[in-house]
Structures are given as structure tokens and as C-alpha cells.
């Protein structure tokens, strides 16, 4: 691997790794037939998918609006062409026009090569929904990628990264495999760091019963983005909240959304609800994670196997609300470097966080420069849906996928003196951008939004 | 052949078109709205949902925002088409005298207006279709998404509209309203249409045949995108209210008065 007949592909999970996420890989000779069975299931059950299959007029509007196509110039990365990789099979087997007119309407027989195409291109799509946003019909190609990845999962084809994350989540409740003692130790260390750097006493509690709030951080915040978790701790301390972190769910992400919206995603949802019940919480507050927030906000109601008793909000919602109510004292002169905001695709096109992020960053920094385009029009970082593959071919592709973002950041001028801040309040964006700002030599440091809140808080 | 096109095929066309559309809509209705896939920023209530979907459907809102060139071609084509469909129904139904119902408009003026509108929209439709075809064949990104059938449909529609325009613009090929009225009346009442003067016009027969082919294929082709658009937008623009922010048992002012987070005995102003 990582190439199949000229197509880049992520390293795939071994059979043993697939079994850890409860999938028995389908033998190659059965894959085409099974793929058709699963596709038949998808078309009969998901209206968003069947409409995406049957409504496109090929106007080409999505092409220049997709960062993946702009970066790679690979025609299969044009959203409608990417959808066409399934649509050609769908037409051939499930529509009269495809059966009657075949190639004239672009229908094609299923084969292993087609399935390998799916694996290559559905794992280059960031599921960022910019194509749905610009499409005159609102065709949500993200839904096609969801189905494409779901079919691949059922066939036993999942990237090693995603499969291992799924298994780790089931084992310990986070993506990084960090066990409870490691969590407690890390949080104690963070408390010390906060005292050293900010002179503030913050106590992180884990599994504290009868907490009003359970906070679900991204597990990457324990390791890669400590200032985000430290910022959250400072925020909750500042407002005097009775809060805790549940050790069974130390993960804001839910990779089920990205490759298996059935067992994997539902399992994580139920794990969350169990944690909230066990700790007798009143509210669940989510940490900085784009896809994870979409999964929590929009999918918990439809995936939960019992009524959901807990309101779920994002920490940005709560911070922005308190800023608007003049309850938080923030000093933007504490952060004077030029800063810009990369608005994660899931926040702005799937979760409605647009205004809140803007409210927060403008209160935290003194030299804010808006990115263009921004808000719902913003482009993805190129790592969306966790296509954060490190194998050499895919890494090179990540550089291409982030080229539109690099262009946007450069245009703001924040990195001109090499001291800019690129605020990217999502763990996948951060993981993508940490190396990419170096690759593109952007002169910026990547930070979360809650990081900035922690730094800007005025305690006395 | 004339018998087939003008007497038999219309009934087959109507049957296939009706059942085909129902079949296609039934396929879509059978699948469910499984998860909430709202596109944000979202609309808060069904009134604004209607406005949002309406502006997309009738004003092509997204195209206007993201591609004004395509917007011009698309809106011209669809508005002209809408007017021409309406014009066919009203014009033939009222023999071109529909505007005479407006006080002050004579029958002659109405017929002239009807003719003029038909000419104007016929030209707009033809030019807009030609523009859309040209766009498909010249813009690199669009060329890369074309399938043969996409080109076919535009050429097909150009032929269909072109023949219609010929009958409108060339006096010798002109089709009087009365002939079509009589022909349709016979069809609707299941009487023989053979021998009616409308069938002597070969341009009409060709035009009518193409229309029927289009209607037969429509339910099974991308031409049904009209309904698909409503279905897709309905999924994306469901009214949605964010859960209310506000944290339980939080009193920020009390917390600040108590100096939470500030180490005891810290009197410096550094934090």
C-alpha cells in the first residue's frame, strides 16, 4: 500500500485490528457482491443519501469550492465526481436509466477496483460540507462520504488510524489510550503549570460524584493541546462551577461519525450517557473538537437508546454567553500578537457556533484579523474527518489539502513577522495545522480558543 | 407514424410520467431522515425555513452568492421555461385572448401580446440553454464533471425549443392556436384526432414528439432535480433552536467575590 493503481490510500487496519472493532473482514472475492448489498441497505434507509445520488445536475459549482480539489487538482476530488464513484454503481444496479443506458449516464459495474477507489477518495474528503453549503440544491456530499466509509467499514476496510482509535475508545474511553491514572497525573501536572504560569489555583477533579457539570475534553488536550484543557480548568474555576471530568469519557471526539455511524458511534453515545448518569450530572459541556461536537450535538438525540436527560452545550456557547452578560473579565491586551481565527467546518456548517467563536476571540486578543472567506464560507484545514495520516504518501497529500488554508492565513498577514496566532479551536484542525503551518512556513503558532480565554482572564 | 405520435403516445406519455414521478418520489419517501443533518447557520422556525427554501427554489440564492455567471444562465433558463409552460397552457387554452380579460385590452392586443411573450421567452430560453451548453464545454472544472447524458439533455432541449421557435418566428410554419385547441380537446375527450389540421404541420409533430420523449424520460433522469432539491433542502433546513446556554448553580459574581482561583494571601495585581 499506500498506493493502489496510482491512487494514494491510507495504511489500512489489519484483520486483527478490524476484529478489535468487531468487524470480520469480507474476503476479496465476496466484496463486490457484499458492497451491493450494503449499498442497497443505505439507499433504502438514508434519504439524504438517496437524494444526493439522484438530484445532482452536474453544474460543477462544487469543484472550485472544495479545498481538496483546489489542493490536489485530482478530478475525482471534485465533490460531485467523488460522489459519482458510488453514484455510477448506484445507477447501474438501482436505477432504470443506469440499467437501460449504461455508460451514457455514467453507470458502471461494481468491482474491486471501484472499492479501492472508494477507499482512496472517501478518505481524502474532509466531510466539511462546503459543497453542501454552495450547492444550488444543497446536495450534501458529506452524506455520500459517510455512506462510502460505512460500506468500507462493513467490508473490513478502515484506515489503521481510525480502527485503532475506535478500539482505544472502547477500551479506555479516549482516543489516545490514556488510562485513568495517566489522566489524573496529567491533570495534577496541569494544575502545577497553571500555578507556575498564571499564578492561579485550579483543581481538576475526576469522577467527582454529584457534579453539576461534566466536562468532556478532547483527549489530545491532555497531550498535544494542554493550554486548551488548562484554559477550560481556569474558566470553570473562575466562574465557580461544580464540575468534573468523567474518567470513562475523556474524549470529545467520536470517530464513529467518521467511519461507522452504527455500533461505534452509538457505543460512544451510550458511554457518555452512562457517565452522566453515574455522576448525577445536570449538564454536559463539550470541549474543543469539531467532528466530536457535531456528533454530540446533532447525533446524540438520534443515536441514544434511551431518552437524553442532559442538555449538552459547547464550552464556547457558555463562554460567549457569559461574555455577553459581562460576567467574564477578559483583557485583550494580554495577547498582543496578530491573531486570526480558523473556524472549524463542523462548528460553522453543522453546529451553528459561528457567532460565539467570533465573540470570544474579539474579547481575548487586541489585534484580530478576520480570515477570508470566514464563517459558514470558511475552508477546511484539510485534516477534517481525521485524515491525519502520517505515512509518506498521505502526508504529502495533507500538505496539498491544506494549501487553501495556507493561502487564507497568508492573506491575513498575521504571520508576516513570524509571531502570529492561528486560532483553530478543534483537535483535528490543531493536529493538521501544527505540522502544516511549518510546511507552508506561515509564521504562526496554532492555538485553541479556550487557550486564549485562559490567558486573557482577569482574576482580580 | 402520425397516429402513433399524435393519438397513441400522448396517453402512454401521461401514464408513464405520472407513475414514474410517483415511483421516484416513493423511493425517496421510503428512505428516512435518520439523523439531524441541519446546515448551519440554521433557521429558527418553519416560516424562515419556507423563506430559505423558497429563495433557493425561485431565486437560486446559493448560485447568486457563489457563481453569478451560472446564476444568470440558470435563472434565465428556468424563468423562461416556466413562462413558456404557462404560456402554452394559457395561450392555447384561451386562444391567445387571455389578456383581453384585463379591462382596456382588446382581443387583438391580447393576441399580439401573447405572440410577443412567446417570442421573447422562446429566445431567452434558447439563448440560456446555449449558454449553459457552452459553459459545460468550455469551463475546465465543469468539463470534468460532465457525463454524456448531461450534454445530450442540453442538445435535446435546444432542438425542442428551436423547433418551437421556428413555428413562432417563421410565418409558413406557424401553428394557429385554434388547431392545437381542437387537437387537445379531442385528446382530452378520447376522440380520434386523425385528420385534424394540427397534424399537417411536421414541425409540430416533431416538437410534440420531443416533448413526449422528454416527459417519458423525465421521471428516470436528472430532469427531476426540481423535486430532489426540495427534498434535500427540507433535510438541511429544518427549524432548529440551540440548547439554552447557562450553567447550573453558577454565580460568577459570588465566585469572584470569594476570590476563587486566587491563592490565599496573594495581594499582587499580576493575575
Folded structure, characterized:
The complex is a heterodimer of chains A (460) and B (271). With 460 residues, chain A is α/β, with parallel strands linked by helices. Chain A has 3 domains: 3-158, Fumarate Reductase Iron-sulfur Protein, Chain B, domain 2, CATH 1.10.1060; 163-321, Glutathione S-transferase Yfyf (Class Pi), Chain A, domain 2 (Up-down Bundle), CATH 1.20.1050; 329-456. Chain A has helices spanning 15-20, 31-45, 47-54, 67-72, 79-94, 96-101, 112-122, 130-134, 141-155, 160-172, 180-198, 220-223, 226-238, 256-259, 263-278, 290-303, 315-324, 345-350, 354-364, 392-401, 403-412, 427-439, 449-456, and strands spanning 3-4, 7-8, 213-216, 243-244, 283-286, 312-314, 339-341, 420-423, 444-447. In chain A, the strands form 3 sheets. A 4-stranded parallel β-sheet of chain A has the order 4-3-5-6. Chain A has a 3-stranded parallel β-sheet with strand order 7-8-9. A two-stranded antiparallel ribbon of chain A has the order 1-2. In chain A, a hairpin with a 2-residue loop joins strand 1 and strand 2. In chain A, helix 11 crosses helix 13. In chain A, 63% of the residues are buried. The mean pLDDT of chain A is 97. With 271 residues, chain B is an all-alpha fold. Chain B is built from 11 helices and no strands. Chain B has helices spanning 2-30, 46-59, 61-66, 68-93, 107-138, 140-143, 148-169, 177-188, 202-217, 225-236, 252-257. Chains A and B meet through helix 2, helix 3, helix 5, helix 6 and helix 8 of A and helix 1, helix 3, helix 7, helix 10 and helix 11 of B.
Amino acid at each position: 500500500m499506500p498506493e493502489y493503481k496510482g491512487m494514494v490510500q491510507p495504511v489500512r487496519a489489519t484483520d486483527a485490528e478490524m476484529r478489535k472493532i468487531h468487524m470480520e473482514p469480507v474476503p476479496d472475492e465476496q466484496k463486490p457482491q457484499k458492497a451491493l448489498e450494503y449499498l442497497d441497505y443505505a439507499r433504502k434507509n438514508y434519504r439524504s443519501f438517496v437524494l444526493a445520488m439522484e438530484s445532482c445536475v452536474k453544474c460543477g459549482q462544487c469543484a472550485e469550492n472544495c479545498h481538496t480539489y483546489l489542493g490536489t487538482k485530482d478530478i475525482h476530488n471534485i465533490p460531485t465526481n467523488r460522489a459519482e464513484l458510488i453514484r455510477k454503481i448506484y445507477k447501474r444496479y438501482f436505477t432504470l436509466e443506469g440499467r437501460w443506458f449504461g455508460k451514457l449516464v455514467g453507470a458502471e459495474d461494481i468491482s474491486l477496483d471501484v472499492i479501492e477507489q472508494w477507499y482512496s477518495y472517501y478518505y481524502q474528503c474532509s466531510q466539511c460540507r462546503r459543497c453542501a453549503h454552495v450547492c444550488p440544491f444543497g446536495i450534501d456530499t458529506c452524506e455520500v462520504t459517510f455512506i462510502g466509509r460505512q460500506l468500507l467499514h462493513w467490508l473490513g476496510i478502515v484506515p489503521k488510524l481510525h480502527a485503532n482509535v475506535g478500539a482505544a475508545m472502547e477500551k479506555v474511553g479516549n482516543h489516545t489510550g490514556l488510562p485513568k491514572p495517566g489522566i489524573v497525573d496529567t491533570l495534577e501536572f496541569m494544575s502545577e503549570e497553571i500555578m507556575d504560569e498564571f499564578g492561579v489555583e485550579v483543581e481538576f477533579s475526576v469522577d467527582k460524584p454529584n457534579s453539576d457539570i461534566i466536562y468532556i475534553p478532547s483527549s489530545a488536550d491532555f497531550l498535544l493541546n494542554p493550554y486548551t484543557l488548562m484554559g477550560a480548568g481556569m474558566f470553570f474555576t473562575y466562574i465557580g462551577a461544580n464540575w468534573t471530568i468523567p474518567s470513562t469519557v475523556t474524549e470529545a471526539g467520536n470517530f464513529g461519525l467518521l467511519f461507522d455511524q452504527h455500533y461505534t458511534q452509538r457505543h460512544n453515545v451510550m458511554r457518555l450517557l452512562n457517565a452522566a448518569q453515574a455522576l448525577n450530572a445536570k449538564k454536559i459541556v463539550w470541549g474543543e473538537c469539531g467532528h466530536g461536537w457535531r456528533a454530540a450535538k446533532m447525533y446524540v438525540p438520534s443515536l441514544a437508546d434511551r431518552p437524553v436527560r442532559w442538555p449538552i452545550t459547547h464550552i464556547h456557547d457558555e463562554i460567549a454567553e457569559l461574555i455577553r452578560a459581562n460576567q467574564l473579565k477578559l483583557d485583550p491586551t494580554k495577547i498582543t500578537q496578530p491573531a486570526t481565527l480558523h473556524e472549524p467546518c463542523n462548528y460553522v456548517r453543522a453546529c451553528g457556533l459561528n457567532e460565539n467563536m467570533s465573540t470570544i476571540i474579539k474579547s481575548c486578543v487586541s489585534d484580530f484579523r478576520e480570515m477570508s472567506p470566514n464563517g459558514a464560507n470558511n475552508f477546511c484545514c484539510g485534516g477534517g474527518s481525521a485524515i491525519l495520516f502520517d505515512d509518506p504518501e498521505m502526508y504529502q497529500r495533507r500538505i496539498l489539502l491544506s494549501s487553501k488554508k495556507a493561502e487564507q492565513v497568508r492573506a491575513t498577514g498575521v504571520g508576516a513577522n513570524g509571531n502570529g496566532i492561528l486560532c483553530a479551536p478543534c483537535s483535528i484542525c490543531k493536529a493538521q495545522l501544527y505540522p502544516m503551518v511549518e510546511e507552508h512556513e506561515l509564521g504562526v503558532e496554532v492555538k485553541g480558543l479556550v487557550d486564549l480565554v485562559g490567558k486573557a482572564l482577569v482574576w482580580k | 407514424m402520425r397516429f402513433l405520435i399524435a393519438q397513441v403516445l400522448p396517453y402512454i406519455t401521461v401514464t408513464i410520467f405520472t407513475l414514474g414521478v410517483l415511483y421516484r418520489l416513493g423511493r425517496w419517501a421510503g428512505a428516512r431522515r435518520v439523523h439531524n443533518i441541519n446546515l448551519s447557520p440554521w433557521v429558527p422556525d418553519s416560516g424562515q425555513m419556507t423563506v430559505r427554501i423558497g429563495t433557493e427554489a425561485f431565486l437560486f440564492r446559493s448560485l447568486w452568492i457563489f457563481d453569478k455567471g451560472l446564476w444568470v444562465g440558470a435563472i434565465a433558463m428556468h424563468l423562461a421555461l416556466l413562462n413558456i409552460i404557462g404560456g402554452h397552457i394559457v395561450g392555447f387554452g384561451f386562444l391567445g385572448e387571455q389578456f383581453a380579460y384585463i379591462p382596456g385590452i382588446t382581443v387583438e392586443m391580447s393576441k399580439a401580446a401573447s405572440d410577443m411573450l412567446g417570442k421573447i421567452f422562446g429566445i431567452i430560453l434558447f439563448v440560456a440553454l446555449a449558454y449553459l451548453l457552452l459553459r459545460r464545454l468550455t469551463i475546465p472544472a465543469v468539463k470534468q464533471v460532465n457525463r454524456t447524458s448531461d450534454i445530450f439533455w442540453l442538445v435535446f432541449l435546444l432542438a425542442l425549443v428551436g423547433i418551437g421557435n421556428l413555428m413562432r418566428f417563421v410565418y409558413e410554419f406557424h401553428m394557429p392556436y385554434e388547431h392545437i385547441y381542437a387537437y387537445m380537446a379531442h385528446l382530452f375527450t378520447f376522440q380520434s384526432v386523425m385528420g385534424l389540421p394540427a397534424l399537417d404541420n411536421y414541425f409540430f409533430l416533431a416538437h410534440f414528439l420531443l416533448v413526449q420523449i422528454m416527459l417519458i424520460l423525465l421521471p428516470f433522469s436528472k430532469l427531476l432535480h426540481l423535486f430532489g432539491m426540495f427534498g434535500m433542502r427540507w433535510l438541511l433546513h429544518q427549524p432548529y433552536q440551540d440548547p439554552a446556554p447557562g450553567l447550573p448553580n453558577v454565580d460568577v459574581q459570588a465566585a469572584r467575590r470569594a476570590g476563587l482561583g486566587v491563592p490565599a494571601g496573594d495581594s499582587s495585581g499580576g493575575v
